[in-house]
Specification:
It is built from three helices and six strands; from the N terminus they run ββββαααββ. With about 90 residues, the protein is α+β, with helices and mostly antiparallel strands. It has one domain.
């Protein structure tokens, strides 16, 4: 998916907003956001910070998958590695 590119702020290129591949950026924003943070889509957001205090990450993984699918992605896999890193294999449906 093509969209505006963010790092810490909107990136610019040649005096205009930078546009590029944004699937990983959208994934990151959905996983970080809590429900209600997107005014147009109040049910969107997996709230990864809330998972940090939980002993069972499975509820977060289920919620994350549902949210990514709600945004139009086909999720092949979402899981934590042995080192605790989140692995997301998802792409927007064409």
């Amino acid at each position: 998916m093509q969209d505006f590119i963010f790092s810490d702020d909107l990136e610019t290129k040649n005096g205009d907003f930078a546009i590029g591949e944004s699937t990983s950026q959208h994934t990151k924003h959905i996983l970080i956001a809590n429900k209600g943070e997107y005014k147009q889509f109040p049910e969107l957001g997996a709230g990864i910070e809330n998972m940090l205090n939980s002993e069972d990450a499975m509820d977060f993984l289920i919620e994350a998958k549902k949210n990514l699918e709600y945004d139009g992605m086909a999720v092949k896999n979402i899981s934590f590695t042995g080192e605790g890193k989140l692995n997301v294999d998802a792409k927007y449906k064409e």
